[in-house]
Amino acid sequence: MIDIRQLRYFLAIADAPSISAAAQNIGVAQPSLSQHIQRMEEELGVKLMDRSPRGTLLTQEGHVFVEHARRICDSLDRCIADMRELGGVVRGRVGFGMPPSCSMVMSVPLAETVRLELPEVRLRAVEAMSGYLKTWIEDGTVDIGFLYDLTDAGHLRATHVMDEELFFYSAPDAWPLDTPPGTPVPLAELQPLDMILPSNGLRNTIEGYCSKAGIKLNVVVEMDAMTQIKELVARGSGYTIFAPVAAQDFVQRGELLRAPIVAPTMMRPVYLVSNPARVMTRACRAVEQVTLDVARELVQRGIWEGSLV
Questions:
Q1: How far apart are CA 296 and CA 263, in angstroms?
Q2: Residue 179: CB partners within 8 Å, gap ≥ 6?
Q3: Does Transcription regulation count among this protein's keywords (predicted)?
Q4: How far apart are CA 208 and CA 157, in angstroms?
């Protein structure tokens, strides 16, 4: 039977240029290491590595096996760490991924709350577009994160936290509508306007509503950079659609004005997501609960505009 020690030996070889280098790295005699690999190959009935004078190369079966081995070893390490923490202080490292708009409102209060309530937990907050975050949650680069779109993410564990309404934004001196700012505007009235939109998950949400309503927006610039979109709109170079949290800094400074969109009203869900294939430590579970508490408080206080689920 293959045991955890053999899996770790195999990973050491996979990460080294040769078996001799792996043997030196982990302090095991090279002949013994070779025998372990040979026994695994006999047990599995496949060849895991091709050996040559220039080193070792994983076979196709070896590449598949190494991914399973990494997950198994990582899960065991997390299990051991979790067991050692039981009954004691919650401690450990937690990687948290946030889209830029979430980060604007959540990163500072979350970091402060974690430091206060979980002083032995080290939070590493990472800001990135949703597409990257989904991949990072899947491969373990981050432990938990916010996502707006669960398309192709049915295998992930998701908590529906809230829904955000999307608004139309314009520079004050370039307001294009007959109705004043703050007055609901039908989505169809935005069709002739020069729109500046991202090409990420927010764009998918907007296009989904437009498609159902038979509306086509005139997108003149695509840019996956939230701050630059706001700068362009504030300069009168076009118009955009955002959730309030994404533009509240420019609105507060008077650089952007907004109006709610109707017919239809466009809503975007916010999910807190983790990977059920990876074992969550006590630290991860504690940060997850703190995150939900902080998010709900921000919504209730009107700092994060949206509707709690």
A1: 28
A2: 185, 259
A3: yes
A4: 24
Cβ-Cβ contacts under 8 Å for 201 (sequence gap 6 or more):
99, 129, 130, 131, 147, 148, 149
pLDDT in tens, 260-304: 999 999 999 999 999 998 878 889 999 999 999 999 999 999 999
- Cα gap 18→37, rounded to integer Å: 13
Q: Which residue has the tokens 């045991």?
A: 3
Q: Is the dihedral of CA 94, 97, 103, 106 positive or negative?
A: negative
Count CB neighbours of 36 within 10 A.
20
C-alpha dihedral sign at 274, 280, 284, 288? positive
This prediction's pTM: 0.75
Instruction: Kindly indicate the confidence band of residue 30, based on its pLDDT and cuts at 50, 70 and 90.
Output: confident
Which secondary-structure segment (H or E) carries 221? Answer: strand 218-222
Cis amide bond preceding 172, omega within 30? no
| Look-up of token digits 């927010």 | 202
The DSSP call for residue 201 is H
Backbone phi and psi for residue 307, each to the nearest 5 degrees, phi listed first: -115, 125
Burial 158-183 (b: 16+ CB within 10 A, else e): eeebbebebbbbbbeeeeeeeeebee
What tens digit of pLDDT does each residue of 219-244 get?
Answer: 999 998 999 999 999 999 999 999 99
In sequence order, the 6+-apart residues with CB closer than 8 A to the CB of 102 are 146, 245, 270
Place of tokens 């001799």: 20
Residue 256 class from Cβ within 10 Å (0-12 exposed, 13-18 middle, 19+ buried)?
buried
For the chain, helix, strand, coil in percent to 5 are 45, 25, 30
